[in-house]
Amino acid sequence: MPSEDTDKLKARVVDEVEAQRDALIDLSLRIHDNPEAGFQEEDACGWLCAYLRERGFAVERGFVGLATAFRATRGADRPRVGLLAEYDALPGLGHACGHNIIAASSTGAGVAVGRVLEATGGSVAVIGTPAEEVYGGKAIMAERGAFTGLDAAMLVHPGSRNAVLTAALACATLHVEYFGREAHAASRPESGINALDALILAFSAVAALRQHIRDSTRVHGVITDGGQAPNVVPGHSAAVFLVRAEDESYLEELKERVLACFQSGAQATGARLEYRWDDVQYAPLRPNRTLAEVYQRNLAALGRTVEDPPVPRPLGSTDMGNVSLLLPAIHPSIAIAPPGMSIHTADFARIAASEEGHRGLLDAAKALAMTAVDVLCDAGLRRRMDDEFHASQRGS
Ligand SMILES: [Zn+2]
Ligand SMILES: [Zn+2]
Fold first, then answer.
1. Phi, psi at residue 77, to the nearest 5°?
2. Which helix (H) or strand (E) holds 245?
3. Which residues have CB atoms below 5 A from the ion given as ligand 2?
4. 131 CA → ligand 2 middle, Å
5. pTM to 2 decimals?
6. Is 79 helix (H, G, I), strand (E, B) or coil?
7. Could you report the per-residue pLDDT of 314-328, keeping only the tens digit for each?
8. Ligand 1 centre from 314 Cα, in Å?
9. What is the structure's pLDDT at 71?
10. How far does residue 261's CA lie from ligand 1's centre (Å)?
11. What is the 3-state composition of the chain as percent helix, strand, coil, each rounded to the nearest 5?
12. Ligand 1 centre distance from Cα of residue 156 (Å)
């Protein structure tokens, strides 16, 4: 298709997003005002499904066996673009990661693209992916084949800068428990085995380990049981730790070393260690550069300048990493907050419902829809994306 026609179609999808402005902001605010944690996003899932059904999409709720996942499709053929929607909140902090904006922007983009399919050919799927924050919903969905048949997968995450080549670390979750023996802490301490001491020694061992591992790695955790009363030697303690690294092979090495820290706590105190690694592991994010460049040009056409730092600072971990290992995918960031403001804070939760948040939502929806048009119309682009994807598979 000549590029002139593609440009006209892009102008049309921008108009189609603009036509949804009030409805998308309403959707975003409704989700924001009603924060639901991972796998409990029943209202958000219901609102998004209704929005898409009312606009001509075929909607499957409970997609791949997850109650709060969905797939909404328009058109049946390849090529097919997937726009991923996250909508889980952070327990206690509400929408401090701005997933209400991800949900509304991918949904708005999907509707806009759905209205030009007769010209582009192909199809579009908006895929609702629950529980990004804690359970790795996309990792589970990836294993169940939720993303097969897509030529590209995209979502835009709100943040403090416009960036396309965002990085994210592979991440594993470790649950530990120590079992000691209770005793009166003053009258019979010699008969106790202190499960809290075991945990604190393990924390210290992890702190020492941090000096001698790669800069990009992260190991951090919280104590979830530190005993019940100061006059009782704690007979039980528990913690949850996250272990993160840039690649999966270093992550495996690091997991062994972190576990050794916890074993040392058991050895020193005589408490018994029980541990469990979560089945779901977040893969590192590998953005498709070819697709990212196209997105960047479209975002620039909307008046936003992309500033990727020479070495992208990992934003943490995301289950979009697991998707990026399956097919060409991008996970750009759009600025809604001042530089330096961190996600996962109360301030960011406020910004996610502000005018700046709405602007980010609409620009993200437009850039996503324009990029989807490029992917659907340009077989050469799809080939280049695939070539890059397969080359990166061979390299990893
Ligand atoms: Zn988050
Ligand atoms: Zn997030």
1. -100, 165
2. strand 236-245
3. 97
4. 10
5. 0.90
6. coil
7. 668 999 999 999 999
8. 12
9. 98
10. 27
11. 45, 20, 35
12. 13
- The SS3 of residue 281 is coil
How far does residue 168's CA lie from ligand 1's centre (Å)?
Answer: 11
Q: How many CB atoms lie within 10 A of CB 361?
A: 29
Which ligand is located closest to the Cα atom of residue 134?
1
Scored b (16 or more CB within 10 A) or e, 67-103 reads ebbbbbbbbeeebbbbbbbbbbbbeebbbbbbbbbbb
Distance CA 382, CA 378 (A): 7
- For 192: left if phi > 0, alpha if psi spans -120 to 50, otherwise beta; the answer is beta
Q: How far is the CA of 99 from the centre of ligand 1 (A)?
A: 8
Residue 134: its pLDDT value, please? Answer: 85
Q: Is 381 helix (H, G, I), strand (E, B) or coil?
A: helix
CB burial string 231-268: b at 16+ within 10 A, e below: eebbbbbbbebbbbbbeeebbeebbeebbebbbbbbee
Query: In terms of DSSP bridges, do strands 218-225 and 333-335 run parallel, antiparallel, or are they unpaired?
Result: unpaired
> Could you tell me the two tokens for 196?
């809290």
Ligand 1 geometric centre to CA of 95 (Å): 9
pLDDT of residue 52: 98
| pLDDT for position 310 | 64
**Centroid of ligand 1 to alpha carbon of 158 (angstroms):** 10
Residue with the larger pLDDT of the pair 307 and 302: 302
